[in-house]
Amino acid sequence: MNRSLVQDYLDTLRHPAFWMYATWLDLVTKYRRSRLGMFWAFFPPILYTFGVGIFFAHLQGEEAGKFVAHLGIGYMIFRFVTVSLSEATTTYAGHANFILDGRTRLTDYILRVVAKALFYFVLAVPVMACALAISPGFQWIGLVTLLPALALVILNIAWMGAVVSVIGARLQDVYELIGSALMFSFLFTPILWTAASAPPDTLRGAIARANPLFHLVEIVRAPLLGEPIELLTYTYLAVFTVAGWLTAILIYRLYARFVPMWI
C-alpha cells in the first residue's frame, strides 16, 4: 500500500507518545550513570562557542565578541541539521523490531531522531544567549524572525530525513556517504568564516552558496547579528523547500512500503 508522507507526519504529531517517550528514555539512560550527568550535553557548545570561537577570532583578526556569536550560532544550526540527517540514515534498521512487529508509521522514527537533536539544540540556547549578550552586533529584532527561521530549518530536516531514511534502509552505504558529504559541507558553510569573505560574484562564493547549509545557517543567524540576508538565500530556500518536499513525497509514496523487507 502506498503511504502518504504528509499524512504520516500529521499522524505522528497527533500521537507523540511513542517517539517522545523513546527520546526521553534514550537521554535518561545515556546520562544517568555519569557523575556529571547533563553537563556533558552543555560541554560541546560551550567549548566550541567560546574556546574555538575566541581562537579563530584572534587567528582571523576578528572582534572576539562578534565572532563568538557568529561561530556559536552557525555551529549549533549545522550540528542540528547534520546530526538529524546522519542518524536518520540508520533509524529504520535501528528500529527493525518495532517495524517488523507492525509499527509501520515510519515518520515516528524520523521524529525520534529529530527530537533528540532538537533537545541538544535547546540545551545550547543558554550558551548562545551568553554569546549574543557579549556581541556588539546583536539585534533584538532578530528574535522576531528566530522561530519562523527555525521552523523553516525543521521543515527542511523533515523532508531530507524522510529521503535519507528510506534510501538508507535499502543501501547501508548511505550512512557513510551522508556522513562524508556533511563533513565536507562544513568547509563550505560560514561557521569558521563569514559570508562576506566569500562574495557571491566570486567562484568560492558561488560554490559556497550552492550548499543548502549555507542558507539554512544564514536565515537564522544573520538577523540576530544585524547582518543582511541575501535575496539569493530567500530564493534558494523557497525552491529547495518546495522541490525537496515534492521529491520526498514521491520517494516515500513509492518506496516506504518496502522498508520492512529491506531491513
UniProtKB/TrEMBL annotation:
Residues 23-223 form the ABC-2 type transporter transmembrane domain. Keywords: Cell membrane, Membrane, Polysaccharide transport, Sugar transport, Transmembrane, Transmembrane helix, Transport. This is ABC-2 type transporter transmembrane domain-containing protein. Belongs to the ABC-2 integral membrane protein family. It is a multi-pass membrane protein. It comes from Pseudoxanthomonas japonensis. InterPro entries: ABC2_TM, ABC_2_transport. It is found in: Cell membrane. The keyword Transmembrane applies. The keyword Transmembrane applies.
